[in-house]
Amino acid sequence: MQDVQNQRDHRNLPIDKVGIKNLKYPITVRDKREGFQPTVATIDMFVSLPHKDRGTHMSRFVEMLNLFRPEVSLKKFSEILEEMKKHLNAASAHVEVTFPYFIEKKAPESNSIGLMDYTCRITGNSNQEGEIDLVSEVVVPISSVCPCSKEISDFGAHNQRGEVRLSTRFNKFIWMEDMIELVESTASCEVYSILKRIDEKYVTEKAYSNPKFVEDIVRDIAQKLKKDDNITWFSVSAENFESIHNHSAYAQIISG
Questions:
Q1: Is CATH 3.10.270.10 the classification given to domain 4-254?
Q2: Exposed e or buried b for every residue in 182-200, given b needs 16+ CB within 10 A?
Q3: Which one has a higher pLDDT value, 222 or 83?
């Protein structure tokens, strides 16, 4: 049968990224407490395409996902990036794996147990020289109380749920749980899936006694990351879904 993708293209235009997006695929990821955790990922896979080639072989991307099984690891990422370049005759390759990650979490006072879900992402790139670049990312829900509102009000202060997005490059493996714990420790208060009345009293009072702007949150996280020799690069952003505005408050720090 004729291989149309292998036909020569005469427009003389290389393509930076070509491949597949939003593929759902079952994977297993490392779990600090349990060892491993099954989840379902959304996967994007791309390679570069030379100017002379009309198309790439899309089916080969899905075939190579077997390299992820039984688990997603940094070693697996390096392997699949190199296999993508080899089998698709590409100079560079890119993979993004986004998945929900669940952590068992106790309420602060009643110790009621619930599962908190966090969005996690691992991104990998391999360039023409074979250099591998890996970035690990977590998206963590938080709550914050506005310091200004607390200062100027006779009673009360407006508070809101927010979201912190932390991306890191590192020398040695870093657990998703450790990244999540770092973020939660800088918020006015953590977010929980189960709260009894005694817990609701605790989180309300804790947040009120620990007001934070989005600027405070990203600076506190960045300050801790700068002291960690294992972290070679980071990007941290905080977004508050404001309770008294029809817009969000946002701050970001990207390390040099």
A1: yes
A2: bbbebbbbbbbeebeeebe
A3: 222
